[in-house]
Amino acid sequence: QQQVKQSPQSLIVQKGGISIINCAYENTAFDYFPWYQQFPGKGPALLIAIRPDVSEKKEGRFTISFNKSAKQFSLHIMDSQPGDSATYFCAALGYSTLTFGKGTMLLVSP
Amino acid sequence: ETGVTQSPTHLIKTRGQQVTLRCSSQSGHNTVSWYQQALGQGPQFIFQYYREEENGRGNFPPRFSGLQFPNYSSELNVNALELDDSALYLCASSLAGAGGYNEQFFGPGTRLTVL
């Protein structure tokens, strides 16, 4: 049973465009929703995170939108850059453990 | 402040063997979680250790076991290796009991190949 569903599986965006990655969760016990960025050969690095009592959080070019009633959240990367090319994972934290989505491979073309 | 480190970087074993992977937590962190990341997949939670005791376990068989030491470093042991155990094994450390959310910081992982 996949508790966090992520889409799309892959995404190609032109430089300067907006990248959007969506996630949906099932377990209402989740109480913290981080996004991780992973480059090949590296471990995931925390990018940005949101609590369920907040509908939006912005840090630089990265924004999380959160819809508690729909149990959905999304990552928006504004002004996407080639250096943003990586795999992005949404996750949900419950009982101190993280449940990850399957990941989105983002390619930003120059 | 040092980040999470893992050793070895890469490892090749044959089916049926046993393996031990090591992790050093980020300075000041008291909790370690281990994840298995198969190729093209998201990390899957194996177990977590807090104050040297297992504090939660995912859907992994008992041949996956672990230890946490007084200095909060940790080991992941896998017995009777199977081909499907080939994956990137990630260690993440966090600080529990400090209030707020226990953000987890990941190491670079150990790439295990089982032949």
Account of the protein in words:
The complex is a heterodimer of chains A (110) and B (115). Chain A has 110 residues and is mainly beta. Helix content of chain A is 0%, strand content 57%. Chain A contains no helices and eleven strands. In chain A, a hairpin with a 6-residue loop joins strand 4 and strand 5 (45-50). Chain A is globular. The mean pLDDT of chain A is 94. In chain B, the strands form two sheets. In chain B, strands 2, 4, 5, 6, 9, 10 and 11 form a seven-stranded mixed sheet that branches. In chain B, strands 1-3-8-7 form a four-stranded antiparallel sheet, with no helix packed on it. The radius of gyration of chain B is 13 Å and the shape is globular. Chain B starts with a strand and ends with a strand. Classes of the chains: A mainly beta (110), B mainly beta (115). The interface between A and B is medium-sized, with 26 and 28 residues.
Largest sheet of chain B: 7 strands, mixed
- In the predicted model, the low-confidence regions of chain A spanning at least 5 consecutive residues are none
Strand content of chain A: over 45%
Structural class by secondary-structure content of chain A: mainly beta
Mean pLDDT of chain B: 92
Q: Total strand count of chain A, please?
A: 11
Give the overall form of chain A.
globular
Helix-residue proportion of chain B? under 10%
Low-confidence stretches of chain B: none
Counted by DSSP, the helix tally of chain A is 0
Q: Look at the structure and give the mean pLDDT of chain A.
A: 94
| SS elements, strand count of chain B | 11
Whole-Å distance between the termini of chain B? Answer: 38 Å
Instruction: Please give the radius of gyration of chain B in angstroms.
Output: 13 Å
Q: What is the count of helical runs of chain B? A: 0
Query: First CA to last CA of chain A: what distance?
Result: 38 Å
Largest interface: A-B, 26 and 28 residues
